[in-house]
């Protein structure tokens, strides 16, 4: 038995005896309490996560790892973002998104006009983030050894224009994914600068990953909402929440059913983060027709038809085209 497994056994035995709450300060900028779960279904014993971290993820659905990505790497990602924003390089398949409140403005150019780069799997520099050994070292704790990079984003949350459109509604990432099982999917989200409540840090509802996939749609916000920013229709407004304030290089790993979002950027600067959703290559595609995911499926297919001139592309096809093996073997996906 590994040392981590031995420690886990000791921790679980202790919790069985004490029945007390444990404080998990390493999971976030705030302390989150958790209790002994019945079984550890969300992580593998790889000697990377401590027993306390495994239990914290089991209970809360996220863990925060400090200073995981170097300043040097983040600066390289920032420079590549600037090159793309200035149209100095064209990346196949990349979607450049703008905030709905400035999308049609002729006076906003370059970095200030771009709120998100989505699907950067064909950009060697940005995609290097998805292959960083220290990231994958943690990812395999959630997915197992065969790892696919499925969804890539660099978020450039702009200063809010006054219409509150820099918010991201509370949502579950699984809403966008036609593959399962959910427990073998994880997001790595790295702050590219200091992230705090003032510039719109992530907000999570600890433990919400224990629920099911909820119905999502566009929220009815007066100032409008950005394309594909679907939100959970119903969730308990009194559910405890945690604001994930992070330093540059900090990385949060979270479950695709965890309800999360972000607030407005009330500063004059931009809030950058880079992320990748990973899945075990043992995952499989599902048919979402007739489910709560049908609305996002139709929206994605319409976008693909407009972008590629192909109306026979399925929701599953769009993900299969984007997925890249980053470790192990491609067994199913």
From TrEMBL:
UniProt xrefs under InterPro entries: PhyH, Phytyl_CoA_dOase-like
Gene3D superfamilies per the UniProt record, alphabetical: q2cbj1_9rhob like domain
Principal EC category: oxidoreductase
E.C. designation(s): 1.14.11.18
Pfam families, sorted: PhyH
Family per similarity comment: Belongs to the PhyH family.
Stated name of the protein: phytanoyl-CoA dioxygenase
Record organism: Cirrhinus molitorella (mud carp)
């Amino acid at each position: 038995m590994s040392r981590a497994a031995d420690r886990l056994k000791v921790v679980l035995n202790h919790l069985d005896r004490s029945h007390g709450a444990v404080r998990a300060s390493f999971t976030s900028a705030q302390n989150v309490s958790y209790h002994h779960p019945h079984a550890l279904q969300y992580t593998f014993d790889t000697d990377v996560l401590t027993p306390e971290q495994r239990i914290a993820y089991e209970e809360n659905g996220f863990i925060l790892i400090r200073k995981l990505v170097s300043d040097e790497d983040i600066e390289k990602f920032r420079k590549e973002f600037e090159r793309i924003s200035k149209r100095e390089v064209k990346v196949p398949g990349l979607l450049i998104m703008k905030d709905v409140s400035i999308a049609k403005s002729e006076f906003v150019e370059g970095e200030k006009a771009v709120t998100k780069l989505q699907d950067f799997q064909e950009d060697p520099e940005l995609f290097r983030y998805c292959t960083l050994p220290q990231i994958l070292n943690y990812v395999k704790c959630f997915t197992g050894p065969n790892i696919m990079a499925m969804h890539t984003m660099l978020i450039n949350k702009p200063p809010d224009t006054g219409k509150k459109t820099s918010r991201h509604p509370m949502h579950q990432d699984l809403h966008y994914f036609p593959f399962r099982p959910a427990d073998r999917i994880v997001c790595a989200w790295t702050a590219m600068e200091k992230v705090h409540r003032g510039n719109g840090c992530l907000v999570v509802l600890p433990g919400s990953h224990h629920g099911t996939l909820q119905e999502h749609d566009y929220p009815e916000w007066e100032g409008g909402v950005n394309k594909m920013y679907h939100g959970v229709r119903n969730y308990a407004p009194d559910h405890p929440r945690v604001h994930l304030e992070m330093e540059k290089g900090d990385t949060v790993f979270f479950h695709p059913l965890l309800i999360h979002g972000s607030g407005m950027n009330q500063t004059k600067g931009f809030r950058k983060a880079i992320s990748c959703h990973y899945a075990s290559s043992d995952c499989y595609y599902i048919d979402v027709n007739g489910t709560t995911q049908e609305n996002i499926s139709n929206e994605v297919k319409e976008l693909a038809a407009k972008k590629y001139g192909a109306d026979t592309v399925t929701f599953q096809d769009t993900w299969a085209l984007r997925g890249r093996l980053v470790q192990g073997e491609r067994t199913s996906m």
